[in-house]
Amino acid sequence: MSRSSGSPIEETLVVFLLVAIVQSVAGVLGAVASLFVLSTPLSQHPWTIVTSVYAHAGLAHLLSNSVALVLFGWPVARATTRLRFHTFFLVTGAIAGVTQVWVTGLLGYGAAVLGSSGAVFALLGYLLVANPVAEGIASSVDVPRWLVWLIFVSLAAAVTIATASPRAALVAHFTGLLLGLVAGRARVLRTQSRHTADRPAA
After folding, report:
1. Are 48 and 36 a contacting pair, CB within 8 Å?
2. Domains of the chain, residue spans
3. What class does CATH assign to 7-198?
């Protein structure tokens, strides 16, 4: 599959818009929670593990995540395939959302969430690690694995706190960013052709 410079971003934005329209209709029918809001128990509305990633809690929420998607997602989309990008976005967003409702549920807070913030933070995390500058530093410095994990967790916590706002899904933000950092370290979105190109000729 060939790489695409911008289409995964455009496709995700279209999905955001279509879901927002369906949300408006579902709001009239009183079905938003059952169709789009991820909550515990997960078995009650399991499809919301997916739909909640693309749904938003209002226009401001939709716009902020859309802008962040373009800023952080565009460089990532250029370096991978459409399928890998969409899979990464959905999987990281779903894991971040599930972690949010599980943790907040255990702590006794409202265990419900919707929005793509977790996936967007995962894109940010991936971009922070899987770029030429970071790769150059990593290749020149031998860092113990435990220290890498400590740096990742600390960075995820710092960014989450710095971007915190009322009603923000902080656990999802932290989880998404940490997933992105780990995925960037493993270069999970790098295509085989990139690996081949990086290998020295025999």
Report:
1. yes
2. 7-198
3. mainly alpha
